[in-house]
């Protein structure tokens, strides 16, 4: 076997090269658990596909592993292949996506004698046929055995979530699905629960499978029908008695068409499982409120409906409660919009406040979702890669994901990610700060504005994987982490190598969470606060104001009494914004505002003037008490609803002009003033002499001819003997000399043609007689 490099090559992460695989088909499935630790043996193991470049006679369909017995300081790498059988030929039997766990038989203190138990999915180039399984001693490659049974009649896909619930009891899950290796319709009708139990008599693991029947909603995917389900996981609490299975998908009929967390629970060490519970993310406090609305070029408006992305990871704490880490964004038609995202821990706690059993714990905003990791066509991509780990006692849960600086990269793609992390103490109710573990790292850093654009030579933190449980080194929790160097034969300066070329794995030994860092309140979600009653309240001046109040609720503190500011003065007219603020015990605040208008029915008033010519009156509203609508009568059978209208009168005289002002409290009494119009004279006479109206009498239409060039816009209408307009006013452009008015609908009688411009006007009599 080979020894690991053991050298520290960069300044931020203590990363060292361990083993390698013939391609990326070890690591691209984020739900597979390739790393496991055993605290009593100081042992850590990483399983991967074989690399024929370093293991002569092997092929990439076989498995190999790396292990350390000093907590990752030094390594024995590329041990194997451990799946030795002529049938495993990378054609008829092709092993992919291995997972592993360390089993330490009772009384053993020698790490070399501990068992590596593994299981990976294999295919025959037609279907995902079954699991490739076995075990052997860490220190003895020749002790390994391998089996590759067909599972569920070949009706299954990639197994994920391998975990050891109790010493010698192993679990993983996958879908009972019609999906073939080559594609086509993919209908899932259940969840396959795999259980392995150590058999001390045979020194092997006996595996059994149980199918939990479950139908999912379906969608069309480029002409094929697929079930809406992804990212299956299984995990247990530290006792191994309480287990949870989780998936992202949809099992309920409805119109939202989004991915939601779905959970199954066992309280009897996995013997039986509950019916599924699908979580509506919109029901969890803070999720909808934190949906991003940032839009990139060409994007449609955000839906406002929360959906998970397509990857998640699961762990279970000391209380037996699940923690499912997933990205959340705006969803539509089983897709997620490019609008910015948030990272949430979806969890359950029966000891929490009523109505908050299911909760969402905010982790961080996320700028980018999916990034290009290789230069293949099609390229190999990676989403945020949510990962979880926990302390051995289950009191601490550790969360990880990747994200890129979209401002620096100039796109919403997660192409050059950093690795972020955060942890919570479920017993103390505290959390650590948000950590960027890779920023500025010369190998694994993603470029950012904060680091002056400098990134690592490997193009970012690619395909990370963490162990299900962490080490505890005194007052520090250390999470074993492996990062992937894509295509190690490629020039490191070109980070986008090929997914079909050998991939190298690097162990990182300094992903640390000091116990002292758990010093912030866990509750970081503002209270939810809602107004009681209407958002707009009208209060007549001098009366009393009834405070309707608001209700506020926080999943950490229960009901909260809102604090009210800016109460209205009922004796003073005005618009008051009454604000209600609720603050929880963690100091998070939220506010809502009600508009209160203190007022009365308006008192109508107006003034008028003649700013240009004496027959054009400018009316200016001067009403009291904030009117919002106006009704004018100009005394010549004309009117207006403008606040400050202008009226052209076409005849001298005295006109009684009236105004009614209105607001939300009602309408004022009518206010009237006499307006004396003069100056309708010589200009109008001259204009009238230039107008010829014919025929007269007329029947169905009349023609109007103007003998001069009018330089202003004209309005033409017919009025009856009492001045009422009987035709809709028509507007003609300056310079028009010929016009026609339809009179077919008028009754016989005498009318007037009224022509008005900005500076003059004229009235010409016309007789209508349909019997002539």
Description:
The chain has 772 residues and is mainly beta. The protein is built from two helices and 60 strands. Strands 27, 28, 29, 30, 31 and 38 form a six-stranded antiparallel sheet that branches. A five-stranded antiparallel sheet has the order 1-6-5-4-3, with no helix packed on it. The relative contact order is 0.07. The model is unreliable at 5-10 (pLDDT under 50).
Question: Which key phrases capture this entry?
Answer:
mainly beta, six-stranded antiparallel β-sheet, 60 strands, elongated, 2% helix, 2 helices, 772 residues
**Arithmetic mean pLDDT:** 92
Principal-axes shape call: elongated
Query: Treating each run of at least 4 consecutive H or I residues as one helix, how many helices?
Result: 2
Number of beta strands? 60
Kindly estimate the percentage of residues that lie in beta strands according to DSSP: 35-45%
User: Quick one: biggest sheet?
Assistant: 6 strands, antiparallel
Identify low-pLDDT runs: 5-10
User: Could you estimate the helical fraction of the residues in percent?
Assistant: under 10%
End-to-end separation in angstroms reads 120 Å
CA gyration radius, whole angstroms: 39 Å
Structural class: mainly beta
Q: Would you kindly provide a brief summary of this structure?
A:
This protein is mainly beta and 772 residues long. It is built from 2 helices and 60 strands.
Topology at a glance:
Layout: E1 2-3, E2 15-21, E3 35-38, E4 43-49, E5 63-68, E6 76-79, E7 94-103, E8 115-123, E9 128-137, E10 160-166, E11 169-177, E12 188-199, E13 204-213, E14 218-221, E15 224-227, E16 229-236, E17 243-249, E18 260-266, E19 277-278, E20 306-316, E21 322-332, E22 335-336, E23 341-348, E24 358-366, E25 371-372, E26 381-382, E27 387-390, E28 396-403, H1 406-409, E29 418-425, E30 430-431, E31 435-436, E32 465-466, E33 471-473, E34 476-478, E35 481-485, E36 503-508, E37 512-514, E38 520-521, E39 528-531, E40 536-540, E41 550-554, E42 558-560, E43 563-565, E44 574-583, E45 589-599, E46 606-609, E47 616-621, E48 629-633, E49 639-640, E50 646-648, E51 653-663, E52 666-667, E53 671-677, H2 682-689, E54 691-694, E55 701-706, E56 714-719, E57 730-732, E58 738-742, E59 749-756, E60 761-768
């Amino acid at each position: 076997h080979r020894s690991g490099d053991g050298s520290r090559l960069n300044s931020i992460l203590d990363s060292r090269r361990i083993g390698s695989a013939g391609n990326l088909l070890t690591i691209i499935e984020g739900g597979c658990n390739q790393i496991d630790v055993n605290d009593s043996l100081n042992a850590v193991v990483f399983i991967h596909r074989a690399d024929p470049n370093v293991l002569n006679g092997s092929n990439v369909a076989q498995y190999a592993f790396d292990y350390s017995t000093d907590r990752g300081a030094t390594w024995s790498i590329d041990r194997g292949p451990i799946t030795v059988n002529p049938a495993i030929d990378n054609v008829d039997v092709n092993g992919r996506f291995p997972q592993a766990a360390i089993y330490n038989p009772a009384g053993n203190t020698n790490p070399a004698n501990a068992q590596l138990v593994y299981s990976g999915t294999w295919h025959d180039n037609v279907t995902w046929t079954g699991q490739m399984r076995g075990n052997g001693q860490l220190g003895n490659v020749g002790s390994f055995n391998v089996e590759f049974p067909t599972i569920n009649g070949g009706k299954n896909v990639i197994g994920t979530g391998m975990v050891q619930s109790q010493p010698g009891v192993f679990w993983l899950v996958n879908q009972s699905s019609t999906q073939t290796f080559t594609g086509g319709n993919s209908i899932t009708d259940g969840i396959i629960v795999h259980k392995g139990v150590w058999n001390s008599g045979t020194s092997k693991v006996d595996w059994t499978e149980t199918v939990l029947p479950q139908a999912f909603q379906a969608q069309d995917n480029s002409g094929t029908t697929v079930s809406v389900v992804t990212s299956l996981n299984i995990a247990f609490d530290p006792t191994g008695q309480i287990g949870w299975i989780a998936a992202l998908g949809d099992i309920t009929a409805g119109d939202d068409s989004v991915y939601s967390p779905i959970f199954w629970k066992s309280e009897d060490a996995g013997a039986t499982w509950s019916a599924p519970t699908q979580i509506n993310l919109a029901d969890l406090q803070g999720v909808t409120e934190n949906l991003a609305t940032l839009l990139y070029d060409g994007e449609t408006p955000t839906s406002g409906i929360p959906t998970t992305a397509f990857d998640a990871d699961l762990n279970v704490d000391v209380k037996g409660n699940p923690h499912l880490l997933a990205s959340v964004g705006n969803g539509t038609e089983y897709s997620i919009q490019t609008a910015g995202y948030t990272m949430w821990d979806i969890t359950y706690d029966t000891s929490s406040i009523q109505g908050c059993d299911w909760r969402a714990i905010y982790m961080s905003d996320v700028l980018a979702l999916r990034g290009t990791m290789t230069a293949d066509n099609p390229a190999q991509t990676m989403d945020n890669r949510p990962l979880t780990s926990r302390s051995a006692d289950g009191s601490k849960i550790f969360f990880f994901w990747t994200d890129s600086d979209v401002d620096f990269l100039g796109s919403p793609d997660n192409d050059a990610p950093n690795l972020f992390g955060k942890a919570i103490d479920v017993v103390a109710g505290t959390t650590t700060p948000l950590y960027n573990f890779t920023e500025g790292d010369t190998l694994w850093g993603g470029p950012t504005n904060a680091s002056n654009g400098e990134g690592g030579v490997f193009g970012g933190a690619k395909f990370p994987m963490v162990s299900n449980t962490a080490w505890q080194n005194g007052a520090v929790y250390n999470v074993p982490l492996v990062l992937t160097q894509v295509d190690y034969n490629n020039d490191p300066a070109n980070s986008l190598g090929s997914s079909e070329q050998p991939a190298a794995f690097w162990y990182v030994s300094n992903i640390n969470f000091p116990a002292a860092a758990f010093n912030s309140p866990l509750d970081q979600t503002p209270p939810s606060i809602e107004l009681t009653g209407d958002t707009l309240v009208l209060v007549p001046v001098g009366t009393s104001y009834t405070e309707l109040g608001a209700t506020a609720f926080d999943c950490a503190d229960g009901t909260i009494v809102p604090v009210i500011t800016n109460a209205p003065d009922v004796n003073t007219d005005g618009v008051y914004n009454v604000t209600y603020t609720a603050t929880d015990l963690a100091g998070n605040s939220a506010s809502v505002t009600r508009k209160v208008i203190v007022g009365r029915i308006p008192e109508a008033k107006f003034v008028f003037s003649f700013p240009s010519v004496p027959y054009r009156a400018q009316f200016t509203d001067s009403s009291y008490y904030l009117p919002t609508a106006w009704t004018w009568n100009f005394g010549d059978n004309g009117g207006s609803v403008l606040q400050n209208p202008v009226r052209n009168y076409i005849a001298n005289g005295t006109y009684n002009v009236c105004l009614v002002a209105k607001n939300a409290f009602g309408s004022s009494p009518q206010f009237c003033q006499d307006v004396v119009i003069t100056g309708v004279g010589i200009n109008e006479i001259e204009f009238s002499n230039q107008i010829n109206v014919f025929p007269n009498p007329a029947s169905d239409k009349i023609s109007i001819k103007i003998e001069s060039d009018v330089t202003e816009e004209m309005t033409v209408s017919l009025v009856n003997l009492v001045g009422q307009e009987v035709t809709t006013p028509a507007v003609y452009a300056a310079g028009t000399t010929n016009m026609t008015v339809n009179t077919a609908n008028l009754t016989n009688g005498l009318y007037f043609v009224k022509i008005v411009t900005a500076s003059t006007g004229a009235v010409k009599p016309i007789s209508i007689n349909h019997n002539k």
